[in-house]
Amino acid sequence: MPRILVHRGATLRERLEHIGWTVTAAGCWEWNGARDSRRGYGQCSTGDKRRHSDLAHRLSFRAFKGDIPAGMFVCHRCDNPPCINPDHLFIGTPSDNRQDMLTKGRGNFARGERHGQSVLSDAQVANVRFEYARGGVSYQALATQFGVSKSCISLLVRGKSRS
Ligand SMILES: [Zn+2]
After folding, report:
1. Please, what's the b/e burial string for 7-20 (b: 16 or more CB within 10 A of its CB; e: otherwise)?
2. CATH 1.10.10 occupies which residues in the chain?
3. 127 C-alpha to center of ligand 1: Å?
4. pLDDT tens digits, 82-101
5. For residue 77, how far is its CA from the centre of ligand 1 (angstroms)?
6. Which class is domain 109-163?
């Protein structure tokens, strides 16, 4: 019997519920679906044609709490990467996220850079998002500043590439 796929117009919440999670003794909702092999974050399909999957905890935040401001990160209070409990998640700035990861000994900011295709370092990506989130700066200005294309900046800012 073929696996029943979640319907195309499903909400984020329906997509998350379709895969499901396991509640731990600590109250974490551990993602039952695929996980990022390096960081352990859950991954989930978004239904967005341009970006087929995103990190499950980011989708959970969007489904239960609301939009993630551009340039901001969704961090875990519980330090449990596969956890998608919205009550364990909070919005942090790039520097919060970095501090959070450093504090928890997971400060591997080279992760995207190792793919070899990335033009910008992760720190630069965080900076691009941070600068844009502060406002008053155009994609073009950021493109010039960071030496990449305007469309690259647009993708980064809109969270379609690398999170
Ligand atoms: Zn948790």
Report:
1. eeeeebeebbebbe
2. 109-163
3. 27
4. 999 999 999 988 777 766 66
5. 7
6. mainly alpha
